[in-house]
Amino acid sequence: QKEVEQNSGPLSVPEGAIASLNCTYSDRGSQSFFWYRQYSGKSPELIMFIYSNGDKEDGRFTAQLNKASQYVSLLIRDSQPSDSATYLCAVNSGGGADGLTFGKGTHLIIQP
Amino acid sequence: GAVVSQHPSWVICKSGTSVKIECRSLDFQATTMFWYRQFPKQSLMLMATSNEGSKATYEQGVEKDKFLINHASLTLSTLTVTSAHPEDSSFYICSARSSGVPDTQYFGPGTRLTVL
């Protein structure tokens, strides 16, 4: 059984600070890792993907992957109120042909 | 790029009726599409994998005779909820796989189904 674990939150962060979201996964054979943002009542929107150990930066977002620890994280710098949403960690074990396994998501609140 | 549409965005139906949901990749061809379901305050759960020109692959616990999937072309997959019941009320979301490194799934806007 593939599992993806996230702290459900809510995680409250002041505007302008760094928000840190964490995710662990059970399948050591997992190959690709994704972070999606989901606003209430909407479908997920892809933020970033990562598949190599280390950090990957895209604007205010940085994804970090540690396959040995089976851990992936997302950092959001200079947090804005519009970043308030649920962030879903998703894992793909089959190189793309398989559906994604999602965590339950972390509810992030950016306080103005 | 990588836009996925779904229709309808919401539907209300009576118990026992069937509902068809369409998923289209608008600017790319998707040999593989996926159907997910999300109940309130829950995560997305994969229901089935839809492959163009072949039968869908269903996840454990998902009734294939109840949730009919047809992937007739490289840009269209349909999900039909047959004989819908109130417990089928949920947010149904499709995604389409875009080839790349790595392959990435892009989600449609979702269809909210309410069965009375």
Report what the structure shows.
The complex is a heterodimer of chains A (112) and B (116). Chain A is mainly beta and 112 residues long. Helix content of chain A is 0%, strand content 53%. Chain A contains no helices and eleven strands. Chain A has strands spanning 4-5, 11-14, 19-25, 32-38, 45-50, 54-58, 61-66, 71-76, 85-92, 101-102, 106-111. Chain A is globular, with a radius of gyration of 13 Å. In chain B, strand 5 and strand 6 form a beta hairpin. The radius of gyration of chain B is 13 Å and the shape is globular. In chain B, strands 2, 4, 5, 6, 9, 10 and 11 form a seven-stranded mixed β-sheet that branches. In chain B, strands 1-3-8-7 form a four-stranded antiparallel β-sheet, with no helix packed on it. The A-B interface holds A 31-32, 34, 36, 41-46, 49, 51, 88, 92, 95-105 and B 32, 34, 36, 42-46, 49, 59, 91, 93, 95, 97, 99, 101-110, 112.
Keywords:
A: 112 residues, mainly beta, 6-stranded mixed sheet, 5-stranded antiparallel sheet, 0% helix, globular, B: mainly beta, 7-stranded mixed sheet, 53% strand
Short description:
With 112 residues, chain A is an all-beta fold. Chain A has strands at residues 4-5, 11-14, 19-25, 32-38, 45-50, 54-58, 61-66, 71-76, 85-92, 101-102, 106-111.
Instruction: Supply Rg of chain B.
Output: 13 Å
Count up the helices of chain A.
Answer: 0
Give the uncertain stretches of chain B in residue-range form.
none
Overall body shape of chain B: globular
Mean pLDDT of chain B: 91
Biggest sheet layout of chain A: 6 strands, mixed
How many helix segments of chain B? 0
Most extensive interface between two protein chains, with residue counts: A-B, 25 and 26 residues
Helix-strand category of chain A: mainly beta
Radius of gyration of chain A: 13 Å
* Helix content percent band of chain A: under 10%
Structural class of chain B: mainly beta
Q: What is the mean pLDDT of chain A?
A: 92
Major sheet details of chain B: 7 strands, mixed
Give the strand content of chain B. over 45%
Principal-axes geometry of chain A comes out as: globular
Q: Roughly how many Å apart are the termini of chain A?
A: 40 Å
